[in-house]
Design goal:
single chain; alpha+beta; 6 strands
C-alpha cells in the first residue's frame, strides 16, 4: 500500500508534468523556473470559469483572461505579454475570446514558490488552423490610443492619467499627501 501511494505521489509530481516545450520558439527571459511552452488552449474569462459570472466578449478587457489548456484541462494564467514593461496579456488575448488558439511563450512552474504554477508569459498567439502568428505586444499601442493626451517621453506609467490621479489622492507611499511631504523632507532634505 505504501508503494502505491508513493508511486501515485511520484507520478503526479511536477517532474512528471507534461512537457510543452516541443515546437516552442519562445525567447528566454532568463527567469527563474521558466520553460518554453507551446500548447493549444481556449481563451477564457477566468472569473467566468471560476464563478459562472460570464459577461459577453470575456468582459471586453475588464477582466483577467486565461488559457484553458486542451491537453489536460488546466487553467493557465497568462499574466504577461511579450513586452518588456509591466503589461498584462489581456489586450493581446481579447480578440481570441472563446476561441481555440495555439500559444507560444514561457511557462513558470515551481513547486517551492507558492502560487508559481501555470503562470504563462505569452509571446505569440494564433487561432487553431491559422498559419499567421500575432505577436503579443499590442498593449502599449492600445494604451496610447486610449490616452492620447498622455503623449510624451519616459515610461507610460509616469504619464498614465489613472496612475497620476491615484498619486494625487494617496501620495507616492499610499499614506496620504501630508505623510508623503513629511517622508520626502525626512529622506531627501
Amino acid at each position: 500500500m505504501t508503494r502505491i501511494i508513493a508511486l501515485a505521489l511520484f507520478a503526479t509530481s511536477p517532474a512528471f508534468a507534461a512537457d510543452f516545450s516541443e515546437g516552442s520558439t519562445a525567447k528566454s527571459w532568463n527567469l527563474y523556473a521558466e520553460a518554453p511552452a507551446f500548447f493549444e488552449s481556449k481563451v477564457v474569462d477566468i472569473t467566468c470559469e471560476v464563478t459562472g459570472d460570464c459577461p459577453d466578449n470575456c468582459g471586453n478587457g475588464d477582466r483577467q483572461l486565461g488559457l484553458l489548456r486542451a491537453a489536460d484541462g488546466v487553467l493557465v494564467f497568462p499574466n504577461k505579454n511579450a513586452q518588456s514593461g509591466f503589461q498584462g496579456a489581456t489586450v493581446d488575448l481579447l480578440p481570441f475570446c472563446d476561441k481555440q488558439v495555439e500559444v507560444d511563450g514561457l511557462l513558470i512552474e515551481d513547486e517551492d514558490i507558492q502560487g508559481a504554477t501555470n503562470i504563462f508569459l505569452v509571446q505569440k498567439i494564433r487561432e487553431v488552423g491559422s498559419e499567421d502568428w500575432v505577436k503579443a505586444n499590442t498593449w502599449s499601442k492600445a494604451w496610447a490610443a486610449k490616452y492620447p493626451e498622455a503623449k510624451g517621453k519616459g515610461p507610460w506609467f509616469r504619464r498614465d492619467p489613472r496612475v497620476n490621479a491615484h498619486l494625487a489622492e494617496t501620495g507616492h507611499f499610499g499614506l496620504g499627501l501630508e505623510k508623503d511631504a513629511e517622508l520626502i523632507k525626512e529622506l531627501f532634505e
